[in-house]
Amino acid sequence: MDFKRADSELADGLAVAVLVADAAGVVHFVNAAAEDLFGVSRKRAVGATLSELIVTEPDRLQHAREAVQSEEAFTAREIEITPLPNGPAQPLHADVAVTPWHSRQWGAVAIIEVSPLDRHLRIVREEALRAQEEANRTLLRGLAHEVRNPLAGLRGAAQLLEREVDAGLVEYTQVIVREADRLRALIDRMMAPDQRPNRGETNIHEVTEHVMQLLRAEAGPGVALTTAYDPSIPELQIDRDQIIQALLNLARNALQAIGDDGAITMRTRALRQYTIGQTLHRLVATIELIDNGPGIPEELQDHLFQPMVTGRPDGTGLGLTIAQSLVGRHDGLIECESSTAGTTFRILLPLEQNHG
């Protein structure tokens, strides 16, 4: 049986990482999911040995080579994998299934399937975020409805009162009017995510550069701003203004986290066969905002995208909620990873989006 082009295309459509190697450990094929998982291109992987690409503890690759000779399949559960040389910084935990196979093209080989357990945990976390986003949207709509009418009455009463009081007291009625206007603007921001995206073909790097330009104007002289873009990302059908607003909310959070002395990196990447929630997407664009600030307090990390949750005394607790809702309107998601070494916010935007 030959590994024909049709077989290759079928393997590339799988979300699980697949490698094909012979008894000597030489790799003859990797699918798209394996390229992404191990951080290596197919051109670089084919012809290399398994030990040049992956390290496991214990050494399950030796068992994979033995499986080719014995023609006996096996499955290893919850093993630690360290991809080399350009894979994720942290080791992966995965289930590995090895199936002997005979090919006229390569002879006796093993099909190695790697299913990261981290991916399943991520899917569960993303489903929770999506459910939380729906609850947030309902809460914001209800809160805005309850506050808007009394606020308009308060402002109108203050304006009427201003006509009757002494000139020395006018400044106090003006304070009421200004604060009412500020709260009305806040409510409008709370309701903004309910607007449907006005989609158009957009270069994602035009969006990121626009946000970086705004950041450069706001950042202090001690702040280092850098970019690392993936030029292979095609244009997306998105609402440019909504994604700019979401990204700007994240960027200003990062700027406030590092203060006057720190670094922020804006990075983009294309991910193939990537799952958001329960949906497998052929191609997903990611925008990452990485700062080297002190990190987000652990007690806040599970509640970041809920309304009114903030770690700053002057914060409204709405910036991340609004950003998540705006990205959710594009069938995407925002993820966050934070430690004392810094914080990464990651926007995931599928290229084949539901426009309904």
Shape: elongated
Largest sheet: 6 strands, antiparallel
Query: pLDDT below 50 for ≥5 consecutive residues: which ranges?
Result: none
Count of helical stretches:
11
CA-CA gap between termini: 44 Å
Strand content: 25-35%
Helical residues, percent: 40-55%
Total count of strands: 13
The averaged pLDDT comes out at: 80
Q: Indicate the structural class.
A: alpha+beta
| Sequence of strands across the biggest β-sheet | 2-1-6-5-4-3
The whole-angstrom Rg is 26 Å
Order of helices and strands: HEEHHHEHEEEHHEHEEHEEHHEE
Give the topology:
Layout: H1 5-12, E1 17-22, E2 27-30, H2 32-38, H3 42-45, H4 50-53, E3 54-57, H5 60-70, E4 74-83, E5 92-103, E6 107-116, H6 117-164, H7 170-191, E7 200-202, H8 204-218, E8 223-228, E9 236-238, H9 240-258, E10 262-276, E11 279-291, H10 298-301, H11 319-328, E12 333-339, E13 342-350
Parallel strand pairs: 8-10
Antiparallel strand pairs: 1-2, 1-6, 3-4, 4-5, 5-6, 7-9, 10-11, 11-13, 12-13
Helix pairs in contact: 6-7, 6-11, 8-9, 9-11
